[in-house]
UniProtKB/TrEMBL annotation, chain A:
Protein name, UniProt field: Translin
Protein location: Cytoplasm; Nucleus
Cellular component, GO annotation: cytoplasm; nucleus
Keywords: Cytoplasm, DNA-binding, Nucleus, RNA-binding
Key word DNA-binding present: yes
Organism: Wallemia mellicola (strain ATCC MYA-4683 / CBS 633.66) (Wallemia sebi (CBS 633.66))
Entry keyword Transmembrane: no
Gene3D superfamilies (alphabetical): Translin, domain 1, Translin, domain 2
GO biological process: RNA metabolic process
Family of this protein: Belongs to the translin family.
GO molecular function: RNA binding; sequence-specific DNA binding; single-stranded DNA binding
Lineage top rank: taxon: Eukaryota
Xref: Pfam families: Translin
Chief location: cytoplasm
From TrEMBL, chain B:
Any Pfam family hit: Translin
Native source organism of the sequence: Wallemia mellicola (strain ATCC MYA-4683 / CBS 633.66) (Wallemia sebi (CBS 633.66))
Keyword Cytoplasm applies: yes
SUPFAM superfamilies: Translin
Protein name: Translin
Family membership: Belongs to the translin family.
Keywords: Cytoplasm, Nucleus
Lineage of source species: Eukaryota, Fungi, Dikarya, Basidiomycota, Wallemiomycotina
InterPro entries (UniProt xref): Translin_C, Translin_fam, Translin_N, Translin_sf
Length: 214, 250
């Protein structure tokens, strides 16, 4: 578009910004609707800290999975499949936090089920543009935080066989993360704090070993 | 069947390559941005030396700045920066530019300041965002090296007002008063633009600085008029005093 008059061009710029802002706001509203599913999933997932091993599947995994499924459907129909690729890329930062949380819960469920790690590639609904990789890394860090808390709580539930297994898994994950060269950014700070988590888990195992509880 | 640890390591080796490449790209862009900032600042200094020269000298100097300092900056944009966003695949290109153009944002703002100052000195106009976009588009290319964001444009022309203030004070007493009035008019129209966009961006800081610039010009003009009346019979003394008050406010 060409303008001979500067004022016209400024007005045009203003209209463009306003339109873009309105659109972003409508996307934000949609994101908060979508996040309700995540909050439900999170509330269900939080029960891992008080649920005995044998009840996890029915009381935690199944209800959480169904919330996540709703989230996933919402996400696909409102964002991934609805938007053009260009539009998606332009605005994805608006829902990247939600994706982080989704990935985190999914990673947690997968651990509870298989004691294994979901890879970034397995989240193929998000990796269309090889993106959300950093969201995956943030989700992994949340996973380590959460499992550290779980270690303490398994002892409270007298399930003394679990801390060792969690610890082995966390060590595998941590050593994988250690391969990456983080620079001084948010991810680096989070990664650096993981050593306290690992220490804490070690402490639990030490306490149990000392008392012949495992 | 590989162990869990082996499988996990395998995935992280892959991620590592990507993370390292991203970080290298980021660092190269930050470096380019810093160089653009430094060169733009230097160009602004050079421009401040030009308008005090006689008319004919001015054209020569503008040419020199264009072909030398400005070209150096353009080279950074078209070579070092452009290469970071050069992808055949449109989606990859978009993705990279979404994630990485923010690292040259600071340089771009300073660049817009220098460019808009040059535009004003040469054509007496406030540069438009489209024009900035055009200058950042290599000949024969269909798109600019980076897409200029409204916030960067507004930041750049906001900072321009500081340079205009310095110029107004410098030329006071030696140039036509209409040029100073033109500068004041331009600063006010930038204020209008910034105020119109207040809701969308945080521009309060820039608007405050701009207000201060306007006040500085007014105060200097006031002092000048008082002294002019006082020393109207002694042009030599007036000249000295004007020089002094320039140095104090500039």
């Amino acid at each position: 578009m060409r303008f001979d008059n500067f004022q016209d061009q400024m007005k045009h710029l203003n209209v463009t910004i306003e339109k873009d802002n309105d659109y972003k706001q409508s996307l934000r509203d949609t994101v908060s609707l979508m996040d309700e599913h995540l909050q439900n999933a999170m509330a269900n997932a939080q029960r891992i800290h008080t649920t005995k091993q044998e009840d996890i599947k029915i009381n935690v995994i199944e209800p959480t999975t169904s919330c996540l499924k709703q989230f996933r459907e919402f996400y696909l129909s409102e964002f991934a499949n609805k938007m053009s690729d260009i539009e998606y890329l332009k605005y994805q930062h608006l829902w990247s936090r939600s994706i982080q949380t989704y990935m985190f819960i999914q990673l947690l469920l997968n651990y509870l089920q298989d004691e294994d790690l979901l890879t970034h590639k397995e989240f193929n609904e998000f990796t269309k543009y090889d993106d959300h990789l950093y969201d995956y890394l943030f989700a992994l860090i949340s996973l380590v935080n959460e499992l550290t808390r779980l270690t303490v709580n398994t002892v409270i539930m007298n399930e003394f066989d679990r801390p060792k297994r969690i610890s082995a898994f966390l060590k595998d994950v941590y050593q994988g993360l250690s391969l990456l060269n983080f620079k001084n950014d948010a991810l680096r700070r989070k990664f650096d704090s993981l050593k306290y988590d690992l220490n804490k888990v070690e402490g639990v195992i030490y306490d149990l070993t000392l008392r012949n509880l495992n | 069947m590989s162990t869990r640890r082996e499988r996990i390591n395998e995935q992280f080796e892959e991620i590592k390559a990507k993370v390292d490449a991203d970080q290298d790209k980021r660092e190269r862009l930050i470096k380019s941005s810093r160089d653009i900032t430094a060169l733009s600042k230097r160009m602004i200094f050079s421009l401040h030396r030009v308008y005090k020269l006689p008319r004919i000298e001015q054209f020569k100097q503008f040419d020199k700045i264009r072909n030398d300092q400005f070209k150096q900056i353009q080279d950074i944009w078209f070579n070092r920066v452009a290469i970071e966003f050069d992808y055949q695949d449109e989606l990859t290109r978009l993705n990279v530019s979404q994630n990485f153009s923010k690292f040259v944002s600071a340089g771009l703002e300073e660049y817009i300041e220098a460019l808009s100052f040059m535009e004003f000195l040469e054509s007496d106009m406030l540069i438009t965002i489209d024009k900035v976009q055009n200058v950042l588009t290599k000949e024969g290319s269909e798109r600019a090296v980076v897409e200029v964001q409204p916030s960067e444009y507004l930041g750049g022309i906001g900072d321009l007002t500081g340079e205009l203030m310095r110029m107004a004070i410098q030329i006071l007493g030696s140039a036509d008063i209409s040029l100073i009035e033109r500068i004041v008019e331009l600063i006010k129209s930038v204020r209008g633009i910034l105020e119109d966009n207040q809701n969308h961006f945080n521009l309060q800081q820039k608007i405050n600085t701009l207000e201060n610039s306007l006040k500085k010009i007014e105060d200097t003009r006031y002092t000048y008029e008082v002294r002019k009346a006082e020393f109207k019979d002694n042009p030599e003394a007036l000249k000295r005093i004007v020089e002094q008050c320039r140095n104090e406010s500039g």
